[in-house]
Amino acid sequence: MPGADNIFVLTQSAFYGARADVVVTLVHCSGLLLHTAAVTLAVAVPLKTNPFAFTLLQLGGALYLLYLLYLLYLAWRAIHASIRHIGAEHPSSCHFPRSTDAASS
């Protein structure tokens, strides 16, 4: 689902043509770059001057990675549970059938 900025660009293009589309897109992207630079500087300066804040950020990042690992583990368990469930319903689809020639020899 497109956001408000995508809809704005599409409506400007529909009403004023392709040239307006390019201008609106360039202005929008330059605003995004300026906003990103301002936020980066506003976050980087306190982190550089305050070692405790930087350590807190590192700890938060490590906890986030552990959370992602937990989500990966839950997804892995769900996938393997569904595979076992499918195998229980259709055992012939999970294993090769035994040859009758090998049983007779």
From TrEMBL:
Bilayer disposition of the protein: Multi-pass membrane protein
Record InterPro entries: LeuE-type
Protein name as it appears in the record: LysE family transporter
Keywords, ordered alphabetically: Cell membrane, Membrane, Transmembrane, Transmembrane helix
Subcellular location field: Cell membrane
Keyword Ligase applies: no
Organism encoding this protein: Candidatus Reidiella endopervernicosa
UniProt GO cellular component terms: plasma membrane
A family per Pfam: LysE
Sample GO molecular function, one term: amino acid transmembrane transporter activity
Top-rank taxon: Bacteria
PANTHER family: ARGININE EXPORTER PROTEIN ARGO (PTHR30086), ARGININE EXPORTER PROTEIN ARGO-RELATED (PTHR30086:SF20)
Annotated TM spans: 22-45, 51-76
